[in-house]
Design brief:
The structure is a homodimer.
Chain A (H helix, E strand, L loop, with lengths): L2 H12 L5 H11 L5 H8 L3 H22 L1 H25 L2 H19 L1
Function (chains A, B): Might take part in the signal recognition particle (SRP) pathway. This is inferred from the conservation of its genetic proximity to ftsY/ffh. May be a regulatory protein.
Family (chains A, B): Belongs to the UPF0122 family.
Protein name (chains A, B): UPF0122 protein IO98_16600
Chain lengths: 116, 116
């Protein structure tokens, strides 16, 4: 996964656990693609200060993922749900009952994933 | 939801964010149903100390849920997956194509839930 995409995903899941100040600057870099110099000027802190804050946020977010694995788990669930979607379309064209059994199996896998 | 069930669920999701000491005592109360006095004796702390620690853990876990809503979201996903499971069984008995369309819709709802 691209670094920015990964950062965005981690932020989606755990961003609420950062401080408002961290969130503001992190969004400027990751979502609005502002340069460190631009943010430094806007915030009245050094370029190095912005750099350190982003690095610290990345670490905080990765630490949460290492403990909770939510990004990984949600990605797996999404993948299984997409598989069900595609199997329903395939079934509409083929009426192959094996596809229905496979859909039932996959829904069971989702329940397992979500069950803890 | 019963208090103990709720505590167990929150712990499943966010327990990894507690300290090892907190986890140990929290499990003794919530999963092993030990009394405060038993734990106080085992840990060499006061009964009140155990009581305060549990209360603090409950607050930490509820705060994470308030920010991240994972328990709520996972419950919704699980409910939808169960619905798919039950619709596949119903389809096997009826061959009603509307059920297939409903399954496709529900898988889309799961993807939405997981997409953020």
């Amino acid at each position: 996964m691209e670094r920015i995409a990964r950062q965005g995903l981690l932020y989606d899941f755990y961003g609420a656990l950062l401080t408002e100040h961290q969130r503001h600057i992190y969004e400027d870099v990751v979502f609005y693609d502002l340069s460190l110099s631009e943010i430094a000027e806007e915030q009245g802190i050094s370029r190095q200060g912005v750099h350190d804050l982003i690095k610290r946020c990345n670490k905080i977010l990765e630490d949460y993922e290492e403990k909770l694995h939510l990004v990984k788990k949600f990605e797996q669930t999404k993948k299984l749900a997409r598989e069900i979607q595609s199997l329903t379309k395939e079934f509409a064209g083929s009426s192959d009952m094996n596809l229905i059994h496979r859909i039932e199996e996959i829904s069971g896998e989702i329940i397992e994933l979500e069950a803890h």
